[in-house]
Write a structure and sequence with these properties.
The protein has four helices and seven strands; from the N terminus they run ββαβββαααββ. By secondary structure, the protein is an alpha+beta fold. α2 runs antiparallel to α3 and α2 crosses α4.
Length: 155
């Protein structure tokens, strides 16, 4: 069992003579699969998303997205935002590495997921860093790409 696989920039096509790359159908399918899993993880963490009339999954020119107008606790929003990164970019490499399945394509997909998670992780950071402005008992309201908060205790 080899939990950690050696990491080299050469396996990603970076060398002293330049950059080389090749795209395979399996890699492109992997990108689509990762995007689907990523958004599905967000979606299943929205309470009652199946019955919700204000929760949608969609595609735009910039990529896939989840649109919601639900009220979420601050803790639930933090979990919802961090789940795709935690499961895909942290758990998958540990599981794949321990089973000897961590190949170059999977490493690249994991890195792409980590890069794509940066805005979600920035929002998690902001939610955790500003407790004086956003108390822990706060309810958040999402409206598309905007998120509003209200202290539910009446303070």
């Amino acid at each position: 069992m080899n939990l950690f696989d050696p990491f080299s920039v050469k396996e990603f096509g970076i060398s002293d003579s330049g950059l080389t790359s090749k795209l395979s159908v399996s890699f492109l399918a992997g990108i689509l699969l990762i995007i689907g899993i990523y958004e599905a993880l967000h979606l299943v963490l929205v309470p009652s998303f199946i019955r919700s009339s204000s929760t949608y999954a969609g595609l735009s020119f910039l990529g896939a997205f989840i649109y919601l107008e639900n009220k979420l606790s601050r803790t639930r929003l933090i979990i919802l935002l961090s789940a795709p990164y935690t499961l895909i970019s942290l758990a998958v490499p540990i599981i794949a590495g321990s089973n000897g399945m961590l190949n170059t394509e999977l490493k690249m997909l994991i890195l792409l997921n980590a890069a794509g998670s940066c805005t979600d992780l920035l929002m998690v950071y902001l939610l955790l860093q500003i407790p004086s402005k956003i108390p822990s008992n706060t309810m958040t309201k999402c409206r598309g790409n905007r998120t509003f908060w209200k202290n539910e205790s009446g303070e």
